[in-house]
Amino acid sequence: MNQLSYKAQRLLILIGFLTVPVALCLTFSYYPAASLIYYSFTDWTGTGWDMNWVGLDNYKQIFTEPEVFLALKNNAYYFVGGLVQVALSLWFAVILTSRLKGRYGFRVMLFLPYVLHSVATVIMFKNVYHLDYGSLNSLLRTIGLESWQQSWLGNPHLVNVSLAFISMWKYMGLNMVIFIGALQSIPSDLYEAGSIDGASGWQKFRYITVPSIKSVLSLMLLLTLTGALEAFDIPYIMMLGANGTSTFVVQTVDTAFKYQSFGLASAMAVVLLAIVIFFIIIQRNLLFREER
Q1: Residue 2 has what pLDDT?
Q2: Tens digit of pLDDT for each residue in 64-83?
Q3: Which residues does 292 contact at the CB level (< 8 Å), separation at least 6?
Q4: What CATH code would you report for 72-121+151-246?
Q5: Phi, psi of 220, deg, nearest 5
Q6: Domain boundaries of the chain, sorted by first residue
Q7: Sign of the alpha-carbon dihedral angle for 230, 231, 236, 242
Q8: With contact defined as beta carbons under 8 Å apart, do 220 and 175 qualify?
Q9: Residue 150 dihedral angles phi and psi, to the nearest 5°
Q10: CA angle at residue 74 from 43 to 63, to 5 degrees?
Q11: Contacts of 65 (CB under 8 A, 6+ apart)
């Protein structure tokens, strides 16, 4: 090794460190993605390797059957809930970066739901939303609001709102922690200068805090958008897509495993990927276009 030149040693080290990550990435990311695109042009049933090339038939079926995209309206509930979640996360982050007594305990309490497994979270909220012994209806009964009691998972007008609230409750702590890290990186001199100039708390937030965390806010909105489009675990575990709760990913999974149409499901996954990329481009170029 010592007899090799510095350039050869550097090249050998780079190859050694990059070989394993690149191999893993190719094996578990790019190859499955390429296979997914290939399967979307076939009629593969998911069992065996007998498949026929059908060209664009799967994509034609997706875009000619309106019910395929009707599930996206349920994803909208998670997107709206995600926007509320981002606002609340930023609000809590601003409060918990101040000199509030016991702020570390509040941080732990708000972050704890993210640590819980989705299955445990769903089981817990089944006990919250239950019509007869659910804690939510019991609370409403205790404070004299019996008229507000609902079958939260049986009412088709409320079930998606109820599920979106679970998602908002679970992931708010993660966004809050990210925002706290971003807020703590802002120099305190900026706030001191704002105080000297007579800026109010809202003016400091608008002209100092928001511009300083613009990139993090953009990332949070991006994750909110992609998370809403890919919502799966909570509606599937809680309702199995019943009572009008099926999202696009739930419908894709049912198409693959329930109806054994992996070719069509692969095409639906590719379409979802295209939708995600489309909205990411819109967000980057319209909402958070860099100043030149």
Answers
A1: 57
A2: 887 778 888 899 999 999 99
A3: none
A4: 1.10.3720.10
A5: -65, -40
A6: 6-62, 72-121+151-246
A7: negative
A8: yes
A9: -140, 160
A10: 35
A11: none
